[in-house]
Amino acid sequence: MSRLRLALALAALLSLTFAAGVVAHGAGLAPGWDFSGGSRPRPSAPPPDDDEVIHNVATDQANPFISNGVSVGSEVGLYFSSGIGPAGLNAAAPAGTPERFVDPAQFPGGTLTPGVTITEAQAMNAFARITDNLATVGLSPRDVITLRIFLDNAPGQPAMDFAGLNRAYRQFFANVDLQTGATLPQPRGSGEPGPPLVVNPVRPSRTALEVASLPSAGWLVEVEAVARFKNERGGGHGGGWGR
Description:
It contains 3 helices and 8 strands; from the N terminus they run H-E-E-E-E-E-H-E-H-E-E. It is α+β, with helices and mostly antiparallel strands. It has a domain at 78-234: CATH 3.30.1330.40. Helix 2 packs across helix 3. This is Rid family hydrolase. Keywords: Hydrolase, Signal.
């Protein structure tokens, strides 16, 4: 077969495949959540339309933790943050120590409340810095579609503090009941649950990795985020649900 005929045959095959994909959009697939709408997320089945992001979470779950994955349409603009760790805001602690990276705005005087671990406090600090980073391009935690998190062991501990990370995560993500729209109180350490720092229904996909060390002395947490730009044609995110 000549190169021209081969090219034409491939083009015809691609056209048929695309057409079949359009006709079968979402056929037989379990719906996930589209968080880009107004007051509430809405169910939608993958594959997404060109301007959609569909989070692979069963729509009969009121309080899932993370998405199993995220489908992203071809016209969705994406923002990739660099790895961001906690800021050294606790001047009362020596430089290079984990305590230096406790945020006094979250824990006055840099003193941890009962049951709060140093990893939990650093993760809250790091998520706040991710929030600041997103704000520089007009985005927020509501726009995040996936997270990658690196954790080092706290001094004297044999493994990463996954439970502490998860408590910090719930302060910024996955803290709205998807069935009722109610904000879900979240604990800090062993304290009584209270309002989360950022009210946010979005369940991003997520990976957490235990590492031997992180680039800044004293860091126990580093976070990368990928976020979607709002679809201005569709009005972006409307009011409600913490936006």
